[in-house]
């Protein structure tokens, strides 16, 4: 109906995006395929809601990956310092991190 009634393509797309977003939020138990069928969509992946949610999930995954990478590098560095005979206290002081952090990596 939005395509028939509204003259401007950007306004049509905004209205359709709003409807898609409302449907997705109001039907959290519905599968992607069920929502696509209800809305008459051939590919839900083409909706703005899906694309924004996918991009947000991808960014969260990147952030988690970065955090894990930093932790892994820190653990490897701590292990190298231990192998060179440094005490956990010395390592904490050298890296300017809490002693508890060093001790967590030792366990």
Report what the structure shows.
The termini are far apart. This protein has six helices and no strands. The chain is rod-shaped. The chain has helices at 2-5, 9-26, 32-39, 48-83, 88-95, 99-106. The protein has 107 residues and is mostly helical.
Over the alpha carbons, how many angstroms does the gyration radius reach?
25 Å
Question: Percentage of helical residues?
Answer: over 70%
- Compute the number of strand runs: 0
Percent in strands: under 5%
Distance between the termini: 63 Å
**Number of helical elements:** 6
Order of helices and strands: HHHHHH
Task: Summarize the biggest pleated sheet.
Answer: none
Task: Show unreliable segments.
Answer: none
- Overall average residue pLDDT: 76
Structural domain tally:
2
Coarse structural class: mainly alpha
Shape: rod-shaped
Q: Which key features would you list for this structure?
A:
107 residues, mainly alpha, 6 helices
Write the layout of secondary structure elements.
Blueprint: H1 2-5, H2 9-26, H3 32-39, H4 48-83, H5 88-95, H6 99-106
Helix pairs in contact: 5-6
In short:
It contains six helices and no strands.
